[in-house]
Amino acid sequence: MNMKRIVVIGAGFAGLNFAKNFSPAPDQEIILVDRRNHHLFQPLLYQVATAGLSPADISMPIRSFFRNEEKIKVILDEVVGIEPNKNQIQFKNSVLTYDVLVLACGANHSYFAHPEWEIYAPGLKSLEQATEIRRRVLSAFEEAEKISNPVLQREWMTFVIVGAGPTGVELAGAIAELSRNTIRNDFRNIDPAKSKVILVEAGARVLATFDPALSETAKKNLVNLGVEVRLNTRVTAMDEKSVTTDHASFFSRTKIWAAGVKPSITGKFLKDADADIELDSSGRVRITAELNLKKYPNVFVLGDQSHFPESSGRGLPGVATVAIQQGHHAAKNVARFLKREKLLPFSYFDKGTMATIGRKKAVLQSGKLKMTGFPAWLAWLLVHIYYLIGFRNRVLVLLQWFWSYLTFSRGARLITESDWKLKD
Ligand SMILES: Cc1cc2nc3c(=O)[nH]c(=O)nc-3n(C[C@H](O)[C@H](O)[C@H](O)COP(=O)(O)OP(=O)(O)OC[C@H]3O[C@@H](n4cnc5c(N)ncnc54)[C@H](O)[C@@H]3O)c2cc1C
After folding, report:
1. 170 catalytic per annotation
2. Fewer beta carbons under 10 A from the terminal one: N or C of the chain?
3. What is the number of the ligand 1 atom nearest to the C-alpha of 46?
4. What pLDDT is stored for residue 422 in this prediction?
């Protein structure tokens, strides 16, 4: 039998949902490739970075999803080139041909033309980065405890988070709570509650994509937790011990980057192979309303790395719900493509957005509905538990949250050497 091969690159929200929803016909097979062996629930990465959860609570081996799916083969490898005119993908040591390609490699951090800052201020996209941030945050208190010079102590006990989108806000709130509650009585030489958490944002408000009233509430919640919120402030320089902005400089040993994103480099591989393939100004691949490429209808590009044509011209936001819905829709369209049927246009159903601030506050916006405080936090918790992959993870995370809600504890306060390194 002449097997048709569907190759999916990336087992994030888009690629995984594609593979889970596509039912291969007898003459079709799926090869799912990822450079990591696990699917990662990125929305809870900040909990790993701030010692609330352990890495295994928010990730799951990709193979385990497809244990019983004979026609789905999982490969651990990294794509280093794509030749759409030859239907070929290149890995470091091999080449794979496809009949249909589903590209869903997500996004990485952008340091706005300052890649040298990454070493001082890691971003939060992977488990390696989350455990590196956890190491830096917890080690900062340990270093401060060992010294008596108050100036140096302040340097170690100042945490700067750059970018006040949901990730920056969640990190700032969690670090403030860690220092003011969880570890408050654990040290003898320092008072962790006196540490400074500074949230720096170039724009005029936190959570800029939310309704202005919700941004204001979130800012107040942060300030109440002890976070210093600096708006309209742009980072201009950074080194191991300090951050300089256009208004002031701070001595700080621990910086975290939550400011910009850039799409996966695999979009550029397509463009390098064929100049007719269009990328937008940020590098996202421009796709059709049916989620594939105009010139190569057998190539579908999904999730954070694609630019979907919609009325605002900005493309859809880089959120999990877009990636999940596109994964489902692409499963239908790839089946239709292989049967030579007309493809169906994708339309996004916006279920709303939310961000949590500390242990029991959140803001939520869904259509006309706006919610703040504890009810929003409860909704945030339920949605995250619902979408978290795997029954074991759901039960464990729910129990841990319940426990830390009662006790303020953060049980994963482990300083481990991380294997984080700079890479695309
Ligand atoms: C800290 C954080 C918090 C977030 N919070 C929320 C939230 O609360 N709500 C929300 O809706 N969204 C949130 N998001 C955004 C959401 O996680 C993304 O929109 C979503 O993950 C995009 O899905 P994707 O499938 O496009 O990419 P990803 O989920 O990033 O998956 C891409 C996959 O491709 C693989 N890959 C990349 N390059 C290669 C290569 N060259 N070769 C092989 N494999 C490769 C990666 O290993 C990865 O598994 C958050 C993101 C982050 C980082």
Report:
1. yes
2. N
3. 1
4. 60
How far is it, in rounded angstroms, from Cα 424 to Cα 107?
Answer: 9
Ligand 1 atom with least separation from CA of 78: 42
The residues with which 74 forms a beta bridge, in sequence order, are: 32
Average pLDDT score over residue span 52-56: 91
Is the four-CA dihedral 203, 207, 210, 213 of positive or negative sign? negative
Whole-prediction pTM value?
0.94
Strand 88-91 versus strand 95-97 pairing type: antiparallel
Side chain identity at 259, as an amino acid letter? Answer: A
User: How many angstroms separate the CA atoms of 19 and 17, rounded?
Assistant: 5
Question: Could you tell me the distance, in angstroms and rounded to a whole number, from the CA of residue 196 to the centre of ligand 1?
Answer: 30
Mean pLDDT estimate for the chain: 94
Compute, in angstroms, the gap from residue 26 CA to the centroid of ligand 1: 31
- For ligand 1, whether the C-beta of 388 sits within 6 Å is no
Distance 159 CA to ligand 1 centre (A): 25
pLDDT digits (tens, 9 = 90+) for 379-392: 988 888 888 877 67
Among the listed ranges 144-158, 339-353, 402-416, which one has the minimum average pLDDT value?
402-416
| Range 205-222 average pLDDT | 97
